[in-house]
Amino acid sequence: MKGNSEEYRLKFFLDRDYLRRECKVCRTPFWSKDKTREDCADIPCSDYTFLDMKEGSLNLSMSEARRKFLDFFRRNGHEVIQPKPVLARWREDLYLTIASIVDFQPYITSGVSPPPANPLVISQPCIRMDDVDNVGITFGRHLTTFEMGGHHAFNYPDKFIYWKDETVAYAKEFFTEEMKIPEELLNFKESWWEGGGNAGPSFEVTVGGLELATLVFMQYEIKGDQYVPLKLKIVDTGYGIERLAWFTQKTPTSFHAIYGELVDKFVGKLNMPRLDNGILKVASRYAGRIDPDLPSTVEEHRRQVAQTLGLPVKEVSDELTRAARVFQVLDHTKTISLMLGDGLVPSSGGEGYLGRLLIRRALRTLKLLGIDVRLSELVEMQIEFWGKDFTQLYRNRDYIIDAVNLEQEKFREVLTKMTAVANSFAQRKDVGVEDLIRLYDSHGIPPDLIADELRSKGLKVEIPHNFYSIVAKRHQSAPVKKEWETTKLPLEVVNQVKDLEPTEKVYYQDQYARKFEGKVIKSIGKYLVLNRTVFYPEGGGQLGDQGWITIGNERIKVVDTQKVNEVVVHVMEREVDLKGNETVQGEIDWVRRFRMMRHHTATHVILAAAKKLLGDHVWQAGAEKTPEKARLDITHHKNLSEEDIIKLEHMANQVIDDRRPVTPFEINRTEAELKFGVSIYEGGVPNKPTLRLLDIKDWDVESCGGTHVSNTADIGGVKIINVEKIQDGIIRLEYVAGDVVSLYARQLEDKISSLASKLETSPSQLEFRLNKLIEENEEMKELVASYRRQFLEGVERVVELRRINEITLALLPTMVDTELEKEAIRRLTSKEKVVAIHVSQTNGKLKVDIGTSRDLNVSFIVNNLVKAGAKGGGKGTFASLMMEGKKEEIIDIVERAIKSGYS
Q: Could you please report the per-residue DSSP string of 587-645?
C-alpha cells in the first residue's frame, strides 16, 4: 500500500509556502521552501554536501546531541522516558530492540495498555544486524548499533494529542532553532513505513544528502493483504542521534563524530598508521553512491575518490579497505559491549547466536587486518568511553570482559579445525551459500577465513558479500506459538472449549484451598470443564494438578489439568457423562500440589540468588516443577564451580530461613515495567494487559501464573542435587525442596548403606575402608606395572617370530592384559619391517589386533581380513578387528597378505 497524495498535503506546508515537487532522480515527491531544488536531498540522488556546509556547525558530541534532542521535546510538553535494554525481552517475537517504537509494541500500540506518558520522548539504543556486512564500507550510513531519538504521541478516539501538522512543525522548529539549519535547507520526502504489523505514511527529513529524521504516522494494522485502520493514531518518529552529531561536526566520517578520540586510540591500539582523513572526507562525500547490494559500486566509488584526489586507485582502495575494517571493529565492539552489558550470553541459539556472530565477525576482521590483540582490550576501551552514557557497562564490566575473553579462546579453537573441516569437502566440486551457512552454524568458521583452504583443494567457493546479514536475518526473530497450540489436549477438544467463558480460578483466590464445588460447563468424553476449580492447569513449567472429582457417590481420578486460553480442562482417568449445570465436588492431591508449590517458589528464590551471585546476565532459559524435583536453566557463559554451587544453595536457604512473605498481586503492564523493569519477564511474556506478579519481599519480583507458598519458610529448605552445562551458554540446576529433601537424603543413605555392604563394612567406617582400598589399589597398580616392565624387557623371548621374505611376523601369546598387549605390539614394531599380531577370544569371536612398524602400512592386511569376513578396521600402523574362525586360519590370511602386499 502507498499513501495517496492527500495523506501528505499538510496545512503546515501550505501555510508556510512549501512546494511539492518530484525528485528528478528517484521521482519521489518531496516538500521544500527552496523553489530551485530539483532533487530530494537524499542519497543517492545527492552527495553528502552537508560536509561542506557552514550551517549547523555546532560540533555536538553524541551526549550533547542526545541531550539537545531530549531537552527540546521536554520543554515542549513531552515526558522523558528511560530507554529499555537492547535485548527486547518484553517481546516474544524479537531478540533485539530495533527501534524506539518496539518499546511500546504490541500492547501500547494496540491500545491494550496505556503508554508510560503521552506524549513522550526517548533516546533508545537500537541494534540492527540486517546490514552488518555494510558497516564501515559506507563510512557511517550503516551501523549495527545506533540511538533512535523518538518523540511519540498516542491519539485515542476520545483523547487527541497531536498528529501530522504538529509533528512536522516540531521537526521544523528543532532543526531550525536547535540545530541552526535554515528552513530553506529542510526537505520532507514522502515515504511509506511498515513494521511490527503496523503501517502508515511518513516523511524523511533530509538536508545536504543526509537523512536526519523519519516522521511516521502509524494508522494501519496489517492483516494479510489488508490495511485495517487502527483505533489509535500513533506518532512514531526516529531522529538519528549519530547523524545529528555528524551533521554538526562535519567530520571525515560519522565514526569520527560518534567515537571522537576513540578512533585514533583504536588505531594506536591496533599498532597501525593514522587513518588518512583527507581521503576519508572525499570518500564520505561520495559515499551515497555506494549501493551495498551492488559490489561494483564500491569499486566505482573508489575510482571516483582516486580521480578527485589525483591518486592511484590502489592506494585509495587499500586505505579505504583498512579504514573500513577499523570502523567495523569500532562499531562491533560497541555493540558487543551493549549486548553483554544488557545481559546477553553468547551461545549457539537465540539472542546469544547474534552476540556470538558479532564477536566472531570482529575477531575475523582483526585477523584480516593481521592484528593479534585481545578483543576484550578493545571492548574495555568502549566501556570507558560509553560508561557514563550507559551505566550498565560499568556495572557489568567484569562479566563483559570475561565473556569476551572466553569467546576469543573458543574462536581460536575453531580456527584450529579449519583444515579438518575443509578436508570433509574433498569429494565436492564446489561449496554453495547453504554449505557456508551450515559450516558457520555448526563449526563457527567464517567463510572468508576457510575459503583459501577450500580453494587449495580445487573447490569453487563464492562467498556472498552480505553473508553475515543473511545469517543474522535467519536468527533475528523467535517463533511464537499461541498458548492453546502448546496444550496436550486433542485438537477437537481445544476447538470445543476455546471460546467458553473463563473458568473461575479458585487456586488464585486461596492457593492453599484443597476442595471446591463447581458446576459442569462442558463434558466431552473424559474432558471436563467446570465454572470454577482449585485444579491448577499445567503452565509456567509447573505440572497440572491431579486429584478427584466426586459425582454423586462416585469418586473419579483426575490425571491431569490443562488450559485453553482462560478455560481450565480437567482430564479424567475415564469418560464421564455429565449434563450442563450439574454440581460436582473436587479435591486436589494436596501432597503432590504442595510439593510443586514449594518447588515453584524455590525456583524464584534460586533464580534471584543466581542473578545476585553470578551477575545481571543470568536469565531464565527454561524451568520445570514436578513433585519429585525442580529444574532451572539459566544463561551463563561458563560452568559453575563447587564454590558457586555452595554459595547459591546457602543464599537460597538464608532467604527461606528469613521467613519472607510471598505475595502475588495484579498490576497494569505499563506500570509494572516502569516500576520493576523488564526482568519481570524472566519466566515468559504473558499476553495480557494486567500482569500477575509474585513478590518475595526484598528479594525478587517476577511475573508468574503458578501456585506458591505464602512465606519462604513454607519451602522448608532446598538442596541442589545436580548442576550441568546442557548446551553452550545454558547451565541447568536441579534441586529439591521441603519434605523431598528428606526423601533425597534417604536415597543417599540407602546408596551409602549398599556401598558399605559391598565393601563389607559399616556406613560409619566407609571412609576409612575406602581410603584403605585406594591405598591397596595404588600398591596393586605399582605391582602390575613392575610385572609389565619385566615382561616387556623379555617380550621377544615369549613371542613366536616368523620370517616372511624380508618381513618379521611376531605372534603374541594370548594375553588378558590389553594395556600390556598394546605396549608389547609397540615395542615389537619399533624396529623396521615388523608386523605384530595378537588374537584373543571375546564373546565367542576372535579379536585381532595388528601393529606394523612405521615403514609399513596396516591397511593391506586389514583389507584381506575384511574380505574374509572381519568387521572393524584401522589405518597407519594399527588395526583392530572382530571375526569368526580359527586362530591358525587368521594367521594364514595375514601371512599371505604380507607375502603379496610387502614384496
A: EE-HHHHHHHHHHHHHHHHHHHHHHHHH-TT--EEEEEE-SS-EEEEEE-SSPPPHHHH
Q: Is 877 helix (H, G, I), strand (E, B) or coil?
A: coil
Strands (DSSP E) contained in 823-887 are 834-842, 845-852, 871-875, 878-883
CB 532, CB 549: distance < 8 Å: no
**Among the residues of 465-579, which ranges form H helices?**
467-475, 491-497, 506-509
What is the Cα–Cα distance from 137 to 301, expressed in whole angstroms? 11
Q: Would you tell me how many other CB atoms lie within 10 Å of the CB of residue 767?
A: 10
Cell numbers that stand for 495 in this block: 476447538
Tell whether residue 838 is among the known ligand binding residues: no
How many residues does this entry show for the chain? 903
The pTM for the full model equals: 0.87
Rg (alpha carbons) of the chain, rounded to whole number: 36
Residue in the structure block whose three cell numbers are 509556502? 17
pLDDT score for 584: 96
Residue 129's nearest CA partner among 408, 438, 395, 338 is: 338
How many Å apart are CA 509 and CA 520, to the nearest integer? Answer: 20
Q: Which amino acid type is present at position 682?
A: E
Helix (H) or strand (E) holding 198: strand 198-207
709 contacts 715 by C-beta, under 8 angstroms: yes
pLDDT (tens digit per residue) in 569-595: 999 999 998 888 999 999 999 999 999
Pairing of strands 79-80, 120-127: parallel
- Measured in degrees and rounded to the nearest 5, phi and psi for residue 843 equal 50, 45
CA distances (Å), 311 to each of 225, 251, 277, 515, in order?
A: 53, 21, 14, 88
pLDDT digits (tens, 9 = 90+) for 430-443: 788 888 888 888 88
On the 0-12 / 13-18 / 19+ scale of CB atoms within 10 A, 791 is: middle
CA distances from 353 to 95, 350, 360, 470 (A): 10, 5, 10, 13
Long-range contacts of 882-887 (CB under 8 A, 24+ apart): 882/842, 882/845, 882/846, 882/847, 882/848, 883/845, 883/846, 883/848, 884/845, 884/846, 885/846, 887/839, 887/846
Nearest to 318 by CA among 288, 279, 278, 282: 279
Annotated binding residue at 332? no
Spatial distance between the Cα atoms of 163 and 153, rounded to a whole number of angstroms: 8
CA–CA gap between residue 542 and residue 632 (Å, rounded): 12
Burial class (CB in 10 A: 0-12, 13-18, 19+), 160: exposed
Percent of the chain with pLDDT strictly greater than 90: 71
* 637 is an annotated ligand-binding site residue: no
* Residue 809 one-letter amino acid: L
The set of residues, in sequence order, having a beta carbon less than 8 Å from that of 150 and lying 6+ positions away, is 99, 100, 101, 121, 122, 123, 124, 236, 237, 238, 239
DSSP assignment, residue 48?
Answer: -
Nearest to 457 by CA among 418, 415, 417, 429: 429
What is the per-residue pLDDT across 444-461, written as a single tens digit (0 to 9) for each? 888 888 887 788 777 888
Beta-bridge partner residues of 193 = 200
Tally of CA atoms within 13 A in the half-sphere of 534 that contains its CB: 21
**Domains along the chain with CATH numbers:** 5-249 (3.30.930.10), 251-415 (no CATH), 483-588 (2.40.30.130), 594-745 (3.30.980.10), 795-901 (3.10.310.40)
DSSP of 303-319, one letter per residue?
HHHHHHHT--HHHHHHH
708 is in an annotated binding site: yes
Helix, strand, coil percentages (3-state) for the chain, rounded to 5, are 45, 25, 35
Q: From 328, 468, 451, 355, select the one nearest 410 (Cα to Cα).
A: 355
Does the pLDDT at position 485 exceed 70?
Answer: no
The interaxial angle of helices 447-456 and 350-369, nearest 10 deg, is: 60
With residue 558 as reference, give the H or E element that holds it. Answer: strand 554-564
Give the end-to-end CA distance of the chain in Å, rounded to a whole number: 81
- Give CA–CA dist 651/700, Å, rounded: 13
Q: Which of 146-150, 198-202, 683-687 has the lowest mean pLDDT?
A: 683-687
